[in-house]
Amino acid sequence: MASQSQGIHQLLQAEKRAKDKLEEAKRRKVKRLRQAKEEAMVETDQYRMQRDEEFRQKQAKIMGSQSNVLEEIEVQTLGKIKELNASYSASVESVINELLSIVCDVKPEIHVNYRITN
Length: 118
What we know:
With 118 residues, the protein is mainly alpha-helical. It is built from one helix and no strands. It has one helix spanning 2-104. The radius of gyration is 49 Å and the shape is rod-shaped. InterPro entries: V-ATPase_G (IPR005124).
């Protein structure tokens, strides 16, 4: 009977060691999964930051070129306005004098389409 109880005791100890090994394996597995998840998060964050930086660079390049175009258009527009103002200033007096001479210096003439009927 002592050998039986010793055999049962050995079986219980073996079962306990197996259970401890399984628990340890589960803990290692959970630890590895947690570590893999953290590494994946770090990797995705790095990838996201890289793509965001590339996007910002492309956006800055596009917006920068658009602002250059806008600045060029603004400069051209201001140049045209100055040119038109200079042309106006140069010819305003002569145009007004010509209009006044046409209006004030009336020369009475018979129109070419007028027919005298008797």
